[in-house]
Amino acid sequence: MGMEAYELDASTIPDHHLLDLDSTFAAIVDRVVFNHSGPGIKSMSLAHTRYDTDGDRRVTAWLDRLASREHHRLERLDVNIGAALHTPASLFRCETLVELRLVVHAAARGLRLDVDGAVHLPQLRRLCLEHAGFRSSTQFQNLIDGCPLLELLHLRFTAVARREDTVGIEIRSPSVRRVVLEGCGGYGMVPFEVSAPNVEELVLSGRNMVAVEKGGVRRLSARKVSLLMDDKLWWYNVFAPFHHFTAFLNVGTNMSRIMAGFHGVLELAISGWCIEYLSKIVDSMNLPDWGIEVLRVEGMWPNQGQAGVVLHLLRSSPCLRNLFITNELEHPREISIDENREQYPATPEFLFDAVPGRLTHLRRFFMFNFSGNRNEISIIKFVLGSSSISINPDQFGVTDYLGNDWSSTQLILASL
């Protein structure tokens, strides 16, 4: 009688098999998958991060067999393997599958998802894909729509190819609770909406997410949002020049449009690169008031433009209760310090003027990696002048990168 759950990991194979590790691993999996006796396998984990890329057909055969209702009752599948994967159609019609995780390592062809036809995964609740390649946004949409009970969607280093007939992507199922797009590409090229009414958290990280006017997030409904984009300076200089005649329009306008599409967001985390995009329109930003209660600035650069953007965010957040700002230590000096930003628009002086009572709900404000920069001090001065927050360790703190407390120093107290 076979077991219901297996964890087959090549790293546990004895050392004397190392010279023939691939064939030994394949033989073990063959025996379990094809010769299993009993009611069928319910949980399978396959791990071999250095599996020969020529083994992809064998992996496809394993997945096809595991997804077969005639042989198994698969509920959980975790594949962490080095072969390029060509997923069988049966995997996307496995009616018993509850959790699916596919991870590919060092495969030139990556993971190909054969989901051009109908997807029927009526029980799937957790979907995690790494290095997946979607040939079109329609293919992506087919996959999402075929998972009516999906609660978690986690995509890491995946991409959507942009084609002439590309249509938008919409995540709309009321069952979805968490969406994580980590280090992903291509989603900035197509319209992307999260209209699902019960999303608790959306995490968006990656590069080239705000390059195209008609692409990127158009509408986003979630209680907690993390915009943690991280570009490379050389690529940023390619797609985001100040004067250009390409399809790549102003990244600041596109970033502002994304934020204008927020609905129901109560907690926002935003990276220095996102603020960098917005700093290109710091003189013309016009954010509506929103109901954010927690704001986390993850890596602010030491310049007036970024300080101005943060002040715009604060002025638009009358419900703010908790504010956390971490200053970036390893910022790209070529564009991050005031001396190198002569081409950037001037930050309106009025932004630095406190607005008494504007942050009346603020209860906690902490700044980390404080360097004494005048722009950091300007933000501190605005917050203290616009709120009734007290200078005590429970409500207020300013520390440098060594952990030294500056909260009660004359430099800070002079802001009162």
Question: Spans of 5+ residues with little confidence (pLDDT < 50)?
Answer: 243-249
Helix content: 10-25%
N- and C-termini, Cα separation: 75 Å
Q: How many discrete domains?
A: 3
**What sort of overall outline do the alpha carbons produce when their principal axes are compared?**
elongated
Secondary structural class: alpha/beta
> Would you count the extended β strands for me?
22
> What is the multimeric organization of the chains shown?
single chain
Q: State the helix count.
A: 10
Strand order of the largest sheet: 1-2-3-5-7-9-12-14-16-18-19-20-21-22
Q: Compute the gyration radius: what is it?
A: 25 Å
Our estimate of the beta-strand percent is 15-25%
Kindly state the mean pLDDT as a whole number?
Answer: 85
Largest sheet: 14 strands, parallel
Organism: Oryza sativa subsp. japonica (Rice)
Protein name: Os07g0105200 protein
InterPro entries: FBL13/AtMIF1-like (IPR050232), LRR_FXL15/At3g58940/PEG3-like (IPR055411)
Q: What would your notes on this structure say?
A:
This protein has 416 residues and is an alpha/beta fold. It has 3 domains: 1-114, no CATH class; 116-232 and 247-265; 268-416, no CATH class. It has helices spanning 21-34, 56-66, 137-145, 233-239, 251-260, 272-279, 304-315, 333-336, 374-386, 410-413, and strands spanning 5-9, 43-48, 76-81, 85-86, 99-104, 111-112, 126-130, 132-134, 152-156, 159-160, 169-171, 178-184, 191-194, 201-206, 216-221, 224-229, 262-263, 267-271, 294-300, 322-327, 364-368, 396-398. The strands form 3 sheets. The chain has a 14-stranded parallel β-sheet with strand order 1-2-3-5-7-9-12-14-16-18-19-20-21-22. It is elongated, with a radius of gyration of 25 Å. This is Os07g0105200 protein. Pfam families: LRR_At5g56370. It comes from Oryza sativa subsp. japonica (Rice). Residues 60-225 form the F-box/LRR-repeat protein 15/At3g58940/PEG3-like LRR domain.
